Amino acid sequence: MMHFLKTDTNFIIHDSFCKVIFQNTLFFFLSFFRDYGMISNNIASRVLLCIYRFKMKNKTRSNILLKTAVFIYLSILTLLVAFQNTDSIWGNGETWVDASVYKYVAWMMDLGYMPYKDTFDHKGPLVYIFFWIGRKFGSWRGVWVPYVVLIFVSLLLLYLVIRKFCSPALSCVLMPVIFAVLFDYEIHAMSPEGLAIPFMAGGLYIFLDYFLFNSSISKLRLFLCGLCFGCILMIKAQMTSVWIVFSIAVLIKNIREKSIPNIGKFLIFFLLGCGAAVVPILLWLIRGDAFRDFIADYIVFNSKYAALYTGNTPSEIFAERVRAVTYFMNKPIILLSLFYCLAMIRFKKENRAFHISYLI
């Protein structure tokens, strides 16, 4: 009986100081009365069990209220962002230039034509599929429906990333700062960068949890990480640096820890997730006789298009990199992130690999 009492009082550890004193005092008197025969073992056990159940019930109720409040808060933020779009139910403006092209390609797809082959544009096929899905909710404004879902998922994943470091209240305070930064990615204009945010946030969350909080990773998470990577490939391949850098860091980490078997498991399930996103789209393009045009427009043309901005000679490429770094360094939140990473690299040796990878 004493073993039962000690085991069932472990829940007092995380309570406030006053509750700990009260519960330990109650435990003492229950033990005293039981030892001197003033109450039976059965009664003492039942009293402690009732207290434990009452505590768990209150804890569950608090968790439900907290999750409901966060859901409502993120929903409000989602609408604040989504209403900035010209296709919203409140908007009455012209669609942004790039988004109007995506709408046109989606319209052609509705008529049975294929992107790249029957229409020209050089964005990823998943962009056109997203707008095609939107047409199912309405010929012009329908894309706003999946767009709202995308914004909510983006904010939810970003909240979960922040929640790894902050309390729920502070995480909610920081969320308006995050969604304000998203406007730099033209998320309100339905740009490919905006469409890529939930997949990038999902990949970052998985890598973050693996490096800083949980060195073991499930097969499902590996699959989802690969799925997010595959979706980014089909939206804008230039935005895959998160996976490239962190995958190298994961490889180095496992080699240093001599966990070679994990590398094979990681690779297999990551590629399965990537294939689940990429292969169906490629098969669709092949079936529609648009695969060669896809290669020509999305890969070859984009490579030449990027060269116009980055240059061809090493000096031109270096100058463009300096210009890009200078552009981002003008943003206060980027500077804060930079100083935070440098501080963590200096003072948190156990997490140095993650912060170096994040900085890169």
Number of helices: 15
From the alpha-carbon coordinates, what is the Rg to the nearest angstrom?
Answer: 27 Å
The overall average pLDDT, rounded, is 77
- Summarize the biggest pleated sheet: none
Unreliable stretches covering 5 or more consecutive residues: 1-17
Distance between the termini: 58 Å
> What is the global morphology?
globular
Our estimate of the beta-strand percent is under 5%
Describe this entry's structure for a reader:
This protein is an all-alpha fold. It has helices spanning 2-7, 17-35, 41-82, 97-110, 125-135, 144-163, 168-181, 192-213, 219-233, 241-256, 260-287, 291-310, 314-329, 332-347, 352-359.
Protein traits:
about 350 residues; mainly alpha; disordered N terminus
Write the layout of secondary structure elements.
Layout: H1 2-7, H2 17-35, H3 41-82, H4 97-110, H5 125-135, H6 144-163, H7 168-181, H8 192-213, H9 219-233, H10 241-256, H11 260-287, H12 291-310, H13 314-329, H14 332-347, H15 352-359
In short:
The protein is an all-alpha fold. It has helices spanning 2-7, 17-35, 41-82, 97-110, 125-135, 144-163, 168-181, 192-213, 219-233, 241-256, 260-287, 291-310, 314-329, 332-347, 352-359.
